[in-house]
Amino acid sequence: MENEKQILLEQFVNLPNETEWLEFKVDNSSSEMIGEKISALSNGATLRNKSHGYLIFGVKDDTHEIVGTNFNPTTSKKGNEELEHWIAQRLSPRIDFEINVFDYDDKQIAIFKIPANKQEPVKFKNIAYIRIGSITRKLIEFPEKERKIWNKSEQLNFEDRNAKTNISADKVLELLDFSAYFELTGQKMPFNQNSIIEKLTQEEFIESSENLYNIKNLGAILFAKNLEQFDNLRRKVTRVIIYKGKGRLETIKEHQNKKGFAIGFDDLVNYVNDQLPTSEEIGTSFRKEVRMFPKIAIRELVANALIHQDFSIRGTSVMVEIFTGRVEITNPGNPLIDTLRFIDHNPFSRNEKLASFMRRINLCEERGTGIDKVITQCELFQLPAPKFQGEEMFTRVYLYAPRELREMDKQDKIRATYQHCCLKYVFDEFMTNQSLRERFKIEKKNYPMVSKIMKDALNSGMIKEFDTENKAKRYTKYIPFWA
User: Fold this and answer.
1) Along the chain (483 residues), what's the average pLDDT of each consecutive run of 10 residues?
2) Distance CA 181, CA 262 (A)
3) In the prediction, which pLDDT does 284 show?
4) What pLDDT score was predicted for residue 151?
5) What residues does each domain of the chain span?
6) Which one of 241, 247, 279, 391 has the largest count of C-beta atoms within 10 Å of its C-beta?
7) How far is residue 331 from each of residues 299, 411, 478, measured CA to CA in Å?
8) DSSP E strands: which ranges in 263-386?
9) Cα(16)–Cα(258) distance, rounded to whole angstroms?
10) Are 116 and 53 in contact (CB under 8 A)?
11) Closest by alpha carbon to 274, among 291, 257, 255?
């Protein structure tokens, strides 16, 4: 790490001039000045497509001579408050700048590493700043520059942003499970480091940055050995929580899957499956235990939750919650399409690169087929229809344990009827009284019971008759309301 800082310093002092994202100082350490500089350098970095801006103490601004500094921001205070905390409290948004103090040829150097903010201009005491030449000015005085910074928020998606910046090739390979990448993609792993780095760069998992490297969010979220080693991703660790009973009052245990999604997916699904209750199935000559919930359904729903989550929602992650009688799988972010159309609709993805790579290595289904499999499996296992719920900040799927038909309420039956009708339609078939009887395992002599369920579904507007002229209700064909 110390060597990386020294390399970075040497690269910066060899630049011909200071820039909008780089400034040198010796000992001028006014707290107000530093706050304004952090705002200006972050905004300048955003403007010039740099991941970070830098304020470096210990270098002359005119000659770039490394002379050292007496200023140590890690021990300095503003009044009775630590300087770093005082500045951070007055920045909006609260960007996570770093302070590094180290020795270079026995000279003390202090570097403020300031992240570019792609969402909006960074302000200090409610004023945004920018560097114009060697002078720090208010950003509002330069509306064209301000407009360009605001436009950046629409240009850079989550996958292309940086999770870790300015690190060595050795550090990249320490943080990412590169061997798993080659194994999952069926490629032979190169024998030398340069070829490995080149391949990760081609995949856009990393990028070169001033002779060092940045790990992009895409690379980290897929192949991090430990997501908690990435500050902006530590809260994206997938959680599995097992509760006692049907509510959240008592937790039995909680498990966190800290690996990147590509390398941790199978472990995650296997762990969830191992926590699910079993039932005993008796064959002609042996007994065996089977899981109450189909593994294929769990796999598809977990994959969907990981891929379609909204990474811009901070402080929350994908959760799998296991209760007595049900499983809930929740991801941050409202659904991008109507939950009623999950079965047949090609999904829109917020994270297309992530989704594409997960499909490429067969960790999820092709577009639009995953939910079909979930519904099919629920029917095969004679489970109640899953429920899909969309809210402003999250999407949640409920899987229910087996229930007798008499234990299902009216909405349960309508939901199962609608999903069965959709499934038939996407397979180029029609729902009929007979097919729904088979779905609910109702004997033929009890077909009026199915007719009542169908009537409720028709009245709810979820299904409709295919041929309204047909008078023989027992042979009527049905299609979803949207068909």
Assistant:
1) 81 91 89 95 91 94 94 92 92 87 94 86 94 91 88 74 87 97 95 94 88 91 97 92 96 96 96 86 54 91 94 89 97 90 77 92 72 91 94 93 92 96 93 93 87 94 86 79 91
2) 8
3) 47
4) 77
5) 2-156, 160-232, 237-402, 404-483
6) 241
7) 14, 24, 33
8) 278-282, 287-291, 319-323, 326-332
9) 43
10) yes
11) 291
State the pLDDT at residue 365: 63
Question: How far apart, in whole angstroms, are the C-alpha atoms of residue 84 and residue 429?
Answer: 66
Tell the residue number behind the tokens 């799998």, with chain if given: 320
Give just the sign of the alpha carbon dihedral 327, 365, 255, 270: positive
Question: Within a 10 A sphere around the Cβ of 304, how many other Cβ atoms?
Answer: 24
Is the separation of the CB atoms in 213 and 159 below 8 Å? no
Q: DSSP of 73-130, one letter per residue?
A: TTT-EETTEEHHHHHHHTEES----EEEEEEETTEEEEEEEEE--SSS--EETTEEEE
Q: Six-digit token pair at 400? A: 């229910």
AA identity, residue 242: I
Distance in angstroms (rounded) separating the CA atoms of residues 345 and 188: 37
Phi and psi of 351, rounded to 5°? -125, 70
Q: Give the CA dihedral 155, 156, 159, 163, nearest 10 degrees.
A: 180
- Both tokens assigned to 384: 């109640």
Which residues sit opposite 101 in a β-bridge?
A: 110
CA 447: distance to chain centroid?
Answer: 47
Give the relative orientation of helices 352-360 and 261-275 as an angle to the nearest 10 degrees. Answer: 70
What is the dotted CATH code of the domain comprising 404-483?
Answer: 1.10.10.10
> From the CA atom positions of the chain, what is the Rg in Å?
29
| Burial of 474: CB neighbours in 10 Å, binned 0-12, 13-18, 19+ | exposed
Residues 245, 249, 255, 258, Cα dihedral to 10° = 140
How many CA atoms, within 13 angstroms, populate the side-chain half-sphere of residue 298? 27
Nearest Cα to 46, choosing from 162, 217, 135, 216? Answer: 162
Question: Alpha carbon 374 to chain centroid distance?
Answer: 22
Q: What does the block give as tokens for 4? A: 């990386």
- DSSP bridge partners of 216: 162
Assign domain 2-156 one CATH number from 1.10.3470, 3.30.870, 3.30.950, 3.40.50.
Answer: 3.30.950
Which of 174, 173, 177, 169 lies closest to 212 in space, CA to CA?
A: 169
- Which pair of structure tokens corresponds to residue 65? 């001579």
**What region does 417 belong to: left with phi over 0, alpha with psi -120 to 50, or beta?**
alpha
Contacts of 311 (CB under 8 A, 6+ apart): 158, 217, 236, 332, 350, 351
Between CA 269 and CA 275, with CA 271 as vertex, the angle to 5 degrees is: 115
* CATH class of the 237-402 domain in this structure: alpha beta
Q: Is 385 helix (H, G, I), strand (E, B) or coil?
A: coil
pLDDT at position 156 is: 66
